[in-house]
From TrEMBL:
This is AAA family ATPase. Residues 213-237 are annotated as: Disordered. It comes from the Bacteria. Transmembrane segments: none annotated. PANTHER family: ATP/GTP PHOSPHATASE (PTHR43581), EXCINUCLEASE ATPASE SUBUNIT (PTHR43581:SF2). InterPro entries: AAA_GajA/Old/RecF-like (IPR041685), Bact_Antivir_Def_Nuclease (IPR051396), P-loop_NTPase (IPR027417). It holds the Pfam family AAA_15. Residues 291-374 form the Endonuclease GajA/Old nuclease/RecF-like AAA domain.
Length: 470
């Protein structure tokens, strides 16, 4: 899937391909998080069962074309997906996705999936055995549509064609199968277990204006200000964070209902997931229905409330719950800065976990500015290259090695401009036999090394001179 964009905050333009493992690297404030939010908002709308998407599909029903006797085909309009994207952002407002109502840096944003037809065809060919039952309330019957054949831009419907009013639902099902459902772990994920109870279901408001007092009433300076419960917030209060963060909160709020549910990936690869996850954190995460709290459980008798656990424990909670309850092959796991709150060694182990998840069918996309993350990715690529050359390497397990063909990597490069604020473009970094040639960290590492050597030499000279005098 190739995505093109222009004018995404400080990112002036870019084109990138979502691969089995996608890496977006760059300095602070270069637009990496904005790009992650944009991908998430788009794919969430296309792959989910949003009522808005079904409504818009109903207004743009593809034409029916009978090419052969007793065969019916659906022809997709050339701009179907990108029209849906444009309509989606026009409807919800780009400001709600980024929480930037008064900002101007997103007003000229353009965004499209350049190769959506080819991508749709390839993805559906891989899922040709999927049956899509559609229920017609009027006729009280199911229409079973089996995807068996794809030819060019036409979708073959070999079984009974559903009525015209069911076509939007049918096409929606096709899109949900073809486009990966995303799950984004935002940079604020470690704080969600602390505050998810403070937000009412579906409401993510915090005070933006002081509550007005009635005429003639004065605010007392002697008594403490009483906090207003969330449920009683006046209408002038506004959301304080972006849509993906709100979705993170909503996801955690719904976890108690999923306690007994196991996702498809967990069912098929539980041992491997736990083996790789436990190298970072040996504990499990549980919901205590009696106390109505999440626990960080190190052993059956040793546990602490998650809100009292370390920042690292809270950082990993959303990832653990997603892998256990919801992750499925073909979905897209997105993590904004997976290095957050992790030691260098745990950053390396996090990369190995994500590589394992990618190898068992979960698509992975990360944004990072960690040298440890990038260098460990390079190690996993080199380890796989050694395996191709029939050379044994015992440093990494084969399940954690990464094929360079399945990795797409990009860096946000600063460009020359007349703007006072730095501007960037997205530049591709092609993986090679030795990994990814990111030069983002070289200057800082070299400067730190030079400073260390200079200080060491000065100390040696000083101590040497002192010894001679004595």
């Amino acid at each position: 899937m190739t995505i093109k964009f222009q004018n995404l905050g400080p990112l002036r333009k870019g084109k990138f391909k979502l691969n089995d493992f996608t890496v977006i690297c760059g300095p602070n404030n270069s637009g990496k998080t904005y790009l992650a939010y944009l991908i998430y908002g788009t794919l969430e709308n296309i792959s989910s069962g949003s009522s808005f998407l079904s409504y818009h599909l109903g207004k743009t029903i593809p034409r029916l074309r009978r090419l052969k006797e007793n065969e019916t085909y659906i022809e997709f309009p050339e701009h179907l997906i990108n029209d849906l994207i444009e309509a989606y952002f026009s409807k919800i407002g780009i400001d709600k996705l980024f929480n930037t109502e008064s900002e101007k840096f997103l007003e000229n944003l353009t965004f499209c999936i350049a190769d959506w037809k080819r991508y749709l065809r390839v993805r559906l060919e891989k899922n040709r055995d999927v049956i899509l039952p559609l229920y017609d309330k009027a006729d009280r019957k199911y229409y079973r549509v089996n995807k068996k054949k794809l030819a060019g831009q036409f979708m073959d419907v070999p079984e009974e064609m559903p009525p015209i009013d069911l076509l939007p639902a049918y096409i929606h099902r096709l899109l949900s199968v073809a486009f990966p459902k995303p799950h984004l772990l935002t940079g604020e994920r470690h704080a969600v277990p602390l505050f998810y109870k403070e937000f009412g279901a579906g409401r993510y408001e915090v005070p933006t204006k002081p509550k007005k007092l009635a005429k003639g009433v004065k605010r007392s300076n002697s008594s403490p200000v009483q906090a207003t419960p969330v449920q009683e917030l006046p209408e002038e209060r506004e959301a304080s964070f972006s849509l993906p963060i709100g979705d993170n909160v909503r996801y955690v709020q719904g976890l108690p209902e999923k306690e007994s549910k196991e996702g498809k990936l967990w069912q098929e690869h539980k041992a491997g997931i736990l083996r790789n996850f436990s190298r970072i954190s040996p504990a499990e995460y549980k919901w205590d229905s009696r106390k109505e709290q999440f626990d960080y459980q190190i052993s059956p008798v040793d546990k602490i409330p998650l809100h009292a656990a370390s920042s690292m424990a809270r950082e990993l909670a959303d990832l653990y719950f997603y892998l256990r309850h919801d992750a499925a092959p073909g979905q897209l796991l997105m993590i904004d800065e997976p290095e957050s709150h992790l030691t260098p060694r745990n950053q390396m182990l996090m990369v190995e976990l994500l590589a394992y998840l990618s190898n068992i069918g979960l698509k992975v996309c990360i944004t990072t500015h960690s040298d440890f993350i990038v260098r460990e990715l390079n190690n996993l690529i080199m380890a796989r290259e050694l395996g191709k050359q029939n050379r044994q390497q015992s440093i990494y397990l084969d399940e954690n090695c990464l094929s360079k063909e399945k990795i797409s990597a990009y860096v946000t490069k600063e460009i020359k401009s007349r703007s006072k604020a730095p501007l960037f473009e997205l530049e591709e970094v092609r993986p090679g036999t030795y990994g990814l040639a990111f030069d983002l960290f070289d200057d800082a590492i070299e400067e730190q090394g030079q400073n260390t050597n200079a200080l060491y030499e000065q100390l040696e000279c000083t101590s040497g001179g002192s010894k001679k005098k004595s």
